[in-house]
Design goal:
The chain is built from 19 helices and 3 strands. It is mainly α. It has 2 domains: 186 residues, MFS general substrate transporter like domains (Growth Hormone, Chain: A), CATH 1.20.1250.20; 193 residues, Growth Hormone, Chain: A (Up-down Bundle). The protein has a 3-stranded antiparallel sheet with strand order 1-2-3, with no helix packed on it. The chain is globular, with a radius of gyration of 22 Å.
Length: 458
Amino acid sequence: MNGRHIMPIPRCINSSHHSMMAHMPAAETTASPRNGARPQTERPADSVPSAAPSAAPSKHLGWLFAVAIAAAAFNLRPVVTSLGPLLDQVRAGLGMNPTLAGLLTAVPSLCFGLFGFAAPSMARRIGPIAVITAGLAAITAGVLARSFAGGTAVFLLLTALALAGVAVSNVLIPVVIKRYFPEKVGPMIGLYSMALSAGTALAAAVTVPLTSSLGGDWRYGLGVWAGLGALALLLWLPVLITRRERGERAGGAAPARLPITRSRTAWALACFFGLQATGAYVVMGWLPKIFQDAGVDKGTSGVLLAVTMVIGVPVSYVLPNLAARRGDQRLFVVVLALCGIAGYAGLALAPAGAPWLWVVLVGLSNCAFPLVLTMIGLRARTAGGVAQLSAFAQGVGYLISIPGPILIGRIYQVTGEWYWPLGFLALLLVPQMLFGLRAAMARHIEDEAVRPAERVTA
């Protein structure tokens, strides 16, 4: 499918009057050879081959596509955040030992990293929309089937199946946005991030009371989330049928892979992504315990955790719009890091002194996630470039984040207090800010990864 084919989008979603793409170079640029010959048209190594243009889709299909993206994003975290509140019941029900339970907490980052790397090659073969649709089917099947698992091994495998669907969708939804909404990257990334934050918060907040209302069986409390996955899948099927995407290799001309590891911006994005994911997973896993150790009751500590997630819902929509309007995003990188440093310092020194302020500051710091997604969309010129950059940044980033929660738990176990673990988290925000400042500069990975002598001239 032609990467320049633009899907109509309802005006209500475009809250930005200045298109991000208006400030970006086109996929094809004019070079000035050193030998003084007539300039040639250069094509990035990862540019998407052109396909025959199809009829312009209707306004209703534009609405459907936007709703489908939001629905998919809503389903990318309940597979993880619905399990945490019920983990003790799941362990008891399956006879899971503590070691395997610890492995279960590391599975999401591992799957996000490993399966995320495979997403671009799958998209080149059958198209990103088809891969996302298959990913939603995997999420729905895995979430539903694991609620009937009779043993730990089967439960882990089915959880990995669902997380594989999450991983490929994580990587490719920004690609779909770049390809079909090139002039509305900020608003659409905002919609995607807002829906993802809402799904995260809802699953964390209502899984326990929902399980109680269904009789107290954890199997029902986990399995019910498959219903939302099925709904998202139903929305993506007509999008898949109407777009009728072909894989980029189906036309017989596969674009050369971009040597992305040469790009300093790509590495900076990967490190920034990994460090922000480390903080987010530590907060999701340990924040209630931090407050409980400070004398806050369990109910309130759960509400405080929910606040850190809910604060990201409106910010996740507004921040990408603001970030996409600027040539670079360094201001936002610094502000979010300072919010995190202040929040972690407050939690370390006086967790019960102003808990609502601390969770708001930490919640704002965790909004580095929608910011890094926006930067991924801005740092490549084409949908193919975004696919490779998204897979690289998220794949490497999630692998970087795996040791974080484990290390924080170990520091707490050794010291018996939260002062040092929280100090360590605050310290991590310094390299996160430095990598973010590099990643936020207005550059494109194609210019860094492809050397002049290797560029393919038309």
